[in-house]
Amino acid sequence: MKLVIQRVNHADVKVDGEVAGSIGKGLLVFVGVGREDTRAVADKYLKKLLGLRIFEDEAGKTNLSLADVDGQLLMVSQFTLYANCKKGNRPSFIEAGAPDEAESLYEYMIAEAKKTVPVVEHGIFGADMKVSLENDGPFTVILDEAIM
Question: Would residue 93 show up in a list of annotated catalytic residues for this protein?
Answer without folding.
Answer: no
